[in-house]
Amino acid sequence: MAANSSVITPAITAAIVDADRRSARDARADRAFRWIVTAAGIFVLLALACAALSMLRGGREAFSTFGLGFLFSTEWDAVNHHFGALVPIYGTLVTALIAMIIAVPVSLGIALFLTEVAPDWMRGPVGAAIELLAGIPSIIYGMWGLFVFVPLMGEYVSPWLDAHVGALPLVGPLFTGPPLGIGMLTAGIVLAIMVIPFISSVMREVFLTVPTRLKESAYALGSTTTEVVWDIVLPYTRSAVIGGIFLGLGRALGETMAVTFVLGNAHQLTASLLMPGNSIAATIANEFTEADSDIYRSSLIALGFLLFVVTFIVLAAAKLMLRRLSRQEGAK
Amino acid sequence: MFNSIKSRFVAAGLASVIGAASAHAADITGAGATFIYPILSKWSDSYNNATGNRINYQSIGSGGGIAQVKAGTVVFGSSDKPLDPKELDDAGLAQFPSVIGGVVPVVNIEGIDAGKVRFTGPLLADIFQGKVTRWNDPAIAQINPDARLPDGAITVVHRSDGSGTTFNFVNYLSKVSPEWKSKVGEGTAVSWPVGVGGKGNEGVAAYVKQIKGSIGYVELAYALQNRMTYAAVQNAAGQFVQPSLTSFQAAAAGADWKNAKDFFLVITNAPGENAWPIAATNFILVYKQPKDGAGTKAALDFFKWAYENGGKQAEELDYVPLPKGLVEQVEAYWQAQIKL
């Protein structure tokens, strides 16, 4: 370049210099961009680590006093300062499980209906309605659960379950009990209603991303809608669908207000889903304001840490399962 | 359903919004029990109109109130559970009663009207321990010869959150039942042997209204305003009394305040023919030698004003103002204990 510099007109030189400068600027901007997004990513990790560590620190008194027994004790006695986390952990898992058993198939149905079956004029309004449902604050679900849904459960559903299902072997013990209306089953159902909008709107979005030509090819080969859904849409979107389910599961595990209203908040371990129980988030919400001793407060913070751990384990287990599934798929 | 309660809070909220907009008069900061929040808000509003001074009260719960006043972030704290003189001394705090309330057992039994079912203290303890489990139990029938109680299961409803209401209720049960005292004990939250937990008075009220055959306990105001089926309870003098402002007042007047150092007295199971056995007191905590002398003086001025002028408003909200003798004792205590 130096040798030719005499024949290159100054205009071209200027253009080259300008271009060099621009690419240097672009490179700088690109570096800055990288830094910013990396910082955002690290920020999430840091926030997570800080939250987990500070809860672990806050709960250290409980962990050191009760040791591993904290995880397996059903006792929760603020007078004698004996605390155990088994009842809240159990309640959290059971209510979230009930919620997912109901919410996943229903959400799948809603999303498939909206993307594959519903006439065009319905898709907009129903889609909007679901997003609206997702925006309702949980206290409203709690109030609705307590004042509308609990009486229905107590009056009709619980007595029926007790009479007809309660006598069956195996599942019977799950459905026996007085017709209180409140309890783990009610909480699970209310949770299901709360997470359905989340899961179904994620599913709807991802179903819309399935390339039309794939679906049309299948239809052209004579597939029915059912076959298109099972063989084209779901395999194509599986990981995103599972992501949507995780989102709902995370919300179900950590939901506080709605559960507090309908779960019954009793520190008792019972097999029956019709009986009151407790969840981690509900226990903390209920008792933190008046936790008047250090060990009490520490136990509640330790519960918060355990919620972290429980959520992590549940999500990790689900991820592992997913990976195994996709490996089987590959082997096929 | 909770209209009147709600309107109290709305009124309080409005008062604080309007307050925030106006100029900075002397703000008296306090924090603590939710129990006195409605009446404090009302008093605060009237006091502001009368003097221009405002009360900024955060109803964060008794435990929080005690912690905040000990940390020195507020001028006064408020607790439904009195601190013992030693704890007060250690923290340099003075303690005095502000207003009287009380706890009322409420039931949901088909065909039974308010005030028509009666309990004794030990019977309540047995029910809340899960020892008496059916409404037609002989122990209940024996003291309710006129009431036709159904053959139904009893569902116990208690508070799920720590609460002064719970404290006073289980304090009473501990006083009348040695078994309760040894097995469950007392505190703002206890390990309930049976039952379901509702969040707040409104949670308990809602559960009791919805679950047939249930029994719970709420503050008097909730029982009256929600027209709940409250029960009569036998008092220390052996009389069955109905919960009312009169019987609460009788309990406050009959209680042995004279011998209570720093007003360290829970007035459950109070003597007196007409005394309600589960009456409760709310307590105010201030520093004996405050750093912020002007603030504490303003707070005491406010309570002095409330004792003198706030009685009617208190009764409107179903609180019981302190009896006259007790007010005099409180003011003498201020003179003697608090150095401003």
UniProtKB/TrEMBL annotation, chain A:
<feature type="transmembrane region" description="Helical">
    <location>
        <begin position="300"/>
        <end position="322"/>
    </location>
</feature>
<dbReference type="InterPro" id="IPR011864">
    <property type="entry name" value="Phosphate_PstC"/>
</dbReference>
<keyword id="KW-0592">Phosphate transport</keyword>
<keyword id="KW-0997">Cell inner membrane</keyword>
<dbReference type="InterPro" id="IPR000515">
    <property type="entry name" value="MetI-like"/>
</dbReference>
<comment type="function">
    <text>Part of the binding-protein-dependent transport system for phosphate; probably responsible for the translocation of the substrate across the membrane.</text>
</comment>
<feature type="transmembrane region" description="Helical">
    <location>
        <begin position="32"/>
        <end position="56"/>
    </location>
</feature>
<feature type="transmembrane region" description="Helical">
    <location>
        <begin position="89"/>
        <end position="114"/>
    </location>
</feature>
<feature type="transmembrane region" description="Helical">
    <location>
        <begin position="240"/>
        <end position="263"/>
    </location>
</feature>
<dbReference type="InterPro" id="IPR051124">
    <property type="entry name" value="Phosphate_Transport_Permease"/>
</dbReference>
<keyword id="KW-0472">Membrane</keyword>
<dbReference type="GO" id="GO:0005886">
    <property type="term" value="C:plasma membrane"/>
</dbReference>
<keyword id="KW-1003">Cell membrane</keyword>
<keyword id="KW-1133">Transmembrane helix</keyword>
<comment type="similarity">
    <text>Belongs to the binding-protein-dependent transport system permease family. CysTW subfamily.</text>
</comment>
<dbReference type="InterPro" id="IPR035906">
    <property type="entry name" value="MetI-like_sf"/>
</dbReference>
<dbReference type="GO" id="GO:0005315">
    <property type="term" value="F:phosphate transmembrane transporter activity"/>
</dbReference>
<feature type="transmembrane region" description="Helical">
    <location>
        <begin position="180"/>
        <end position="199"/>
    </location>
</feature>
<feature type="transmembrane region" description="Helical">
    <location>
        <begin position="126"/>
        <end position="150"/>
    </location>
</feature>
<keyword id="KW-0813">Transport</keyword>
<protein>
    <recommendedName>
        <fullName>Phosphate transport system permease protein</fullName>
    </recommendedName>
</protein>
<feature type="domain" description="ABC transmembrane type-1">
    <location>
        <begin position="89"/>
        <end position="318"/>
    </location>
</feature>
TrEMBL record, chain B:
<dbReference type="GO" id="GO:0043190">
    <property type="term" value="C:ATP-binding cassette (ABC) transporter complex"/>
</dbReference>
<comment type="function">
    <text>Part of the ABC transporter complex PstSACB involved in phosphate import.</text>
</comment>
<dbReference type="GO" id="GO:0042301">
    <property type="term" value="F:phosphate ion binding"/>
</dbReference>
<comment type="similarity">
    <text>Belongs to the PstS family.</text>
</comment>
<dbReference type="InterPro" id="IPR024370">
    <property type="entry name" value="PBP_domain"/>
</dbReference>
<feature type="domain" description="PBP">
    <location>
        <begin position="22"/>
        <end position="307"/>
    </location>
</feature>
<dbReference type="InterPro" id="IPR005673">
    <property type="entry name" value="ABC_phos-bd_PstS"/>
</dbReference>
<dbReference type="InterPro" id="IPR050962">
    <property type="entry name" value="Phosphate-bind_PstS"/>
</dbReference>
<comment type="subunit">
    <text>The complex is composed of two ATP-binding proteins (PstB), two transmembrane proteins (PstC and PstA) and a solute-binding protein (PstS).</text>
</comment>
<dbReference type="GO" id="GO:0035435">
    <property type="term" value="P:phosphate ion transmembrane transport"/>
</dbReference>
<protein>
    <recommendedName>
        <fullName>Phosphate-binding protein PstS</fullName>
    </recommendedName>
</protein>
<keyword id="KW-0813">Transport</keyword>
<keyword id="KW-0592">Phosphate transport</keyword>
<feature type="signal peptide">
    <location>
        <begin position="1"/>
        <end position="25"/>
    </location>
</feature>
<dbReference type="Pfam" id="PF12849">
    <property type="entry name" value="PBP_like_2"/>
</dbReference>
<keyword id="KW-0732">Signal</keyword>
